[in-house]
Each structure stands twice: as C-alpha cells, then as structure tokens.
C-alpha cells in the first residue's frame, strides 16, 4: 500500500472529505488530492501531523508495510500495542461533532474544540476560530457572536467586540456598550460616538457624562457649542432649552434621544 493510499484510507475512516482533511492539515483540497494520487509528497511536518491526527506511526505512513505490523514500542520495551487501537494524546483531547444536515451550505452545528482543533464553521459553531450564524470562540464571527474577539452582524459580545450591537471591554458598533465604546450610540467608561453617555463622553452631536464634550454637552465638566454644566439630575428649564436647540439645530436627532429632553 502506497503512502497516498494509506492517507486516503485513513481519511475515509474518519469520514472526512478531502477539503475537510485539508483544513485540519492547513493545506488545500488540491494538495490532499495530489498526496493521495501520488503526484506530490507531503512535507515532513505534515507527515508528523498526520501521524498524530490518525494515531499511527510515521514508519507506518512511510514504509510499505501492512497495518498489522504497525506497533508502538514503549521506552521500557515491555509492551507493544497496535496503533490502530490507540488514540494519540491529541485525539484524546480533541472533541468534534458536525451535523450532516445543512442550511445554506453550512452544517446545522459544528463543535470543534481541544488540541489540534482550530476552526468551527456552521449555523451554530463552537471553536477556537468560530464562524456561523451563531458562533462562540476565542475569535468568533457571525450573525450573533460571543468570544474573546467577537464580530457580529447583529450582536457581538466579547473582550473586543464589533457589531450592530456590541458589548465588551472594547466595543464598536451602531450601539456600543463597553469600557471603551465607539459607534453611533455609545455608552461606556470612555464613550465616543455621535451620541454618547459615559464617565468620559465625547460626541459629534450630544454628549452626556462626568466629562462631556460635544456640540451639545451636558455634564459636570461640559465643553461644546452648547455646554451645560450640570451635576446630578438635569433641571427642567435646562431640559427645555436643550430640547429647543435640538429641534432648531439638530432636527435629524433620533426621536428617542430628543424625548430624553422633552
């Protein structure tokens, strides 16, 4: 049995397509195809990676011998075990499940975690690098995402998050809430946006906070074209003045913002 035939047989025993196996090895589907047809030889590091992934020795992969002779000799020389019945440490610490059913070309779920697991891709996905409609991971990208670094079209939650609605230590989005918040509507310790609320609030139009800087600025320390130095609740006469300025000079202000001073 040739190296290519062994690779193909081992890959198929795992139920993996050439593309899926290529992702795990960090190569293209075309590269896997060339290995299996004998048109190309894998690099040494890929041989070692395959040895760990399939739980076989490099000798088995490289030598023209049957699987029956494939065994592992322990350092003490007292035991020999067939590799086909033993999983590598990496496999023992690797968990992967993928749905056979798909939606828009994506499996309904893909969970890929542990040693040697890098990417999960599905409608619902969990992995170190996770992409899908709903994704969880160290780096997650999706419609709804949650991770250390999170990018979500609708909602993103993470230490660093970017999305339509973003919540995190550092958050950027149309609506952003975080220690540092950047966006259109922002709330945070340091808040920068078109409309901002925070300990330090900086806005192009309306800022409200301990330190506030904006076209209209309301706060204990306010700086702006229209600055209102206020501590605590805003008095009704100042609210009325702010509402008048908004109606006159910022007529495109969203209604829910204007209603705060109505």
The count of β-strands is: 8
- In DSSP terms (H or I, runs of 4 or more residues), the helix count works out at 8
Radius of gyration: 29 Å
Instruction: Classify the helix fraction into a percent range.
Output: 10-25%
Largest sheet: 4 strands, mixed
Chain-averaged pLDDT: 84
How many separate domains make up the residues? 3
Sheet with the most strands: spatial strand order: 3-6-8-7
Strand content: over 45%
Which regions are unreliable across 5 or more consecutive residues at pLDDT < 50?
66-86
Helices and strands: which structural class? alpha/beta
Shape: rod-shaped
SSE succession: HHHHHEEHEEEEEEHH
How far apart are the first and last residues' alpha carbons, in Å?
81 Å
Describe the overall structure.
This protein has 262 residues and is of the alpha/beta class. The chain folds into three domains: 3-92, 434 Repressor (Amino-terminal Domain), CATH 1.10.260; 95-154, no CATH class; 166-261. Helix content is 25%, strand content 50%. It has helices spanning 3-13, 18-25, 29-36, 44-54, 58-62, 89-92, 236-249, 255-258, and strands at residues 71-73, 80-82, 94-98, 102-103, 106-107, 109-114, 119-121, 124-229. It has a four-stranded mixed beta sheet. A two-stranded antiparallel ribbon has the order 1-2. Strand 4 (102-103) and strand 5 (106-107) form a beta hairpin. Helix 2 crosses helix 3. It is rod-shaped. Mean pLDDT is 84; it is low at 66-86.
């Amino acid at each position: 049995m040739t190296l290519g035939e062994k690779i193909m047989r081992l890959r198929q025993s795992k139920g993996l397509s050439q593309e899926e196996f290529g992702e795990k090895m960090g190569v293209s589907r075309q590269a896997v195809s060339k290995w299996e047809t004998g048109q190309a030889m894998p690099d040494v590091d890929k041989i070692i990676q395959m040895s760990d992934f399939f739980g076989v020795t490099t000798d088995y992969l490289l030598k023209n011998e049957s699987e029956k002779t494939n065994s592992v000799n322990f350092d003490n020389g007292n035991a020999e075990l067939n590799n086909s019945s033993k999983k590598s440490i990496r496999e023992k610490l690797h968990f992967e499940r993928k749905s056979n059913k798909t939606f828009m070309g994506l499996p309904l779920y893909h969970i890929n975690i542990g040693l040697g697991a890098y990417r999960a891709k599905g409608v619902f996905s969990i992995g170190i690098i996770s992409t899908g409609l709903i994704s969880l991971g160290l780096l997650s990208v999706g419609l709804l995402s949650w991770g250390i670094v999170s990018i979500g079209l609708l909602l993103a939650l993470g230490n660093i998050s970017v999305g339509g609605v973003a919540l995190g230590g550092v958050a950027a989005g149309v609506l952003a809430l975080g220690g540092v918040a950047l966006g259109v509507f922002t709330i945070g310790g340091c808040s920068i946006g078109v409309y901002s609320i925070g300990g330090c609030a900086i806005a192009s139009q309306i800022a409200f906070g301990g330190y506030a800087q904006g076209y209209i600025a309301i706060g204990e320390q306010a700086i702006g074209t229209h600055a209102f130095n206020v501590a605590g609740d805003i008095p009704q006469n100042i609210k009325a003045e702010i509402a008048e300025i908004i109606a006159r000079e910022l007529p495109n202000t969203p209604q829910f913002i204007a209603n705060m001073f109505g």
